[in-house]
Design brief:
It contains 11 helices and 14 strands. The protein is of the alpha/beta class. The protein has 2 domains: 13-132, NAD(P)-binding Rossmann-like Domain (Rossmann fold, 3-Layer(aba) Sandwich); 135-283, Dihydrodipicolinate Reductase, domain 2 (2-Layer Sandwich). Strands 8-9-10-7-11-12-13-14 form an 8-stranded mixed beta sheet, with helices on one face. The protein has a 6-stranded parallel beta sheet with strand order 3-2-1-4-5-6, sandwiched between helices. The chain is globular, with a radius of gyration of 20 Å. The protein starts with 12 loop residues before the first strand and ends with a helix.
Length: 323
């Protein structure tokens, strides 16, 4: 197979799409199917054969009879894995074996499990794998990173909190409500969020066990970073009827403080007693940035997306938080 070309900067990337459900229709199709865009869809696959054939006629492109057929095509440089019905995440390993970069939509825990099962030599010099790490690519996070690099200075202490449903709630084509993230996926999101702000992997991590006066629905992880900073991460299980998980983050630096609260609000102030500034950003998932940085990684350009070694560290640390 031809694999990836690292010398195609600025040209379109030829992609195959696996899974044509709601994520494709609502989030990814508008970005990947537009004249003059950075990517060209050359083949699609869906377990519902009629759906794949209809979409292939609309684009137009080819409709693959199976996942392996799609991955074996020489004109596919990268794969968008957007649904995980019966086949699960195994196309990740199959794509990497053929030298294809992979974008993994949906829950990151399944993708990290698949990567962790691969031999180390299979991952050496492997093409990029990008997960849906929304907080890393959110505009408020990118703006906060700019402030930490300039006005506020590097982070000293970070506190990040999320809530998670106590019971898994699945999503299907017959259910209009999207699936709620599981605690393991939120643990990955929290660890990656803090790692992004510090700009390095944690030097050490330890789980705080609930004390005698703590309920079993709270988990707390402490991270220490090489430059002396630290982070306290917490996940609390809540009743499943809460509509969406909540997330909050606060940062303290030598010069000031900053806070991120939903939906997409960043507040920050300088010491001592500086007046707070507030900035608001769209609350929608940063799908455009996710796609942009995946395609940049395929072209061998600089990107905010973590490499495979960073993903391995993220996997180990998040498993300590929520197995």
């Amino acid at each position: 197979m031809s694999g990836l070309s690292r010398e195609r900067s600025g040209t379109e990337v030829r992609v195959g799409v696996i899974g044509l459900g709601r994520p494709w229709l609502e989030r990814y199709r508008p970005l990947l199917v537009r004249p003059g865009g950075p990517a060209r869809v050359v083949v699609v696959y869906d377990p519902v054969v009629h759906r794949a054939e209809l979409e292939a006629d609309r684009l137009p492109c080819a409709a693959a009879e199976g996942i392996t057929v799609l991955l074996d095509r020489d004109d596919v440089e990268a794969v968008f894995l957007l649904d995980e019905p019966w086949y699960g995440p195994w196309p990740i390993a199959a794509a990497l074996a053929r030298g294809k970069a992979v974008f993994c939509g949906g829950r990151p825990r399944a993708a990290l499990d698949e990567l962790a099962a691969l031999p180390t030599d299979r991952l050496r010099d492997a093409p990029p794998v990008v997960l849906e790490l929304h907080h890393r690519f959110a505009p408020e996070t990118i703006r906060l990173r700019e402030l930490l690099a300039t006005t506020l200075g590097p982070p000293l202490r970070v506190s990040a909190r999320m809530t998670a449903p106590a019971v898994e709630r699945s999503s299907s084509d017959d259910d209009p409500a999207p699936a709620l993230p599981l605690p393991a996926d939120l643990a990955i999101a929290l660890v990656d969020w803090c790692r992004t702000l510090f700009g390095s992997d944690p030097a050490s991590s330890r789980l705080l066990r609930p004390g005698a006066d703590s309920s079993d629905n709270l988990r707390v992880l402490l991270l220490d970073f090489p430059e002396g900073g630290s982070a306290r991460l917490s996940i609390r299980l809540v009743p499943p009827n809460r509509p969406r998980p909540l997330h909050r983050l606060s940062v303290r630096t030598a010069k000031g403080r900053a806070w991120i609260t939903p939906p997409g609000t960043l507040r920050w102030s300088l010491n001592p007693g500086g007046l707070p500034s507030a900035e608001s950003f769209p609350p929608d998932p940063p799908t455009d940035r996710l796609v942009e940085h995946f395609l940049r990684s395929v072209r061998g350009e600089s990107t905010l997306a973590p490499g495979l070694e960073e993903l391995a560290t993220l996997d180990r640390t998040s498993r300590l938080f929520v197995p």
